[in-house]
Amino acid sequence: xxxxxxxxxxxxxxxxxxxxxxxxxxxxxxxxxxxxxxxxxxxxxxxxxxxxxxxxxxxxxxxxxxxxxxxxxxxxxxxxxxxxxxxxxxxxxxxxxxxxxxxxxxxxxx
Length: 110
Description:
Layout: H1 4-12, H2 39-61, H3 64-71, H4 76-85, H5 91-105
């Protein structure tokens, strides 16, 4: 399993798509502070993340039966688990939408 700090750091990068430091790194950032973020790099990473998260949660959601069996969940307990997991299906598509917004906002002026 990946390091939790790494996963937290990667998830925080999503904020870069909507914050100014997603276009120019803050001066305090080691080695790269003050430099422009390459637009294509940010879009590629975010797009790959959106696809990965979408596939992860679709796979997990459609394998909930294994969780039900492992923990002996029946009836209302199953509904609660489904209700808790269902919003995760939106994570990937919403990340894709933010990526498209970033691409439009940072589109070079001709």
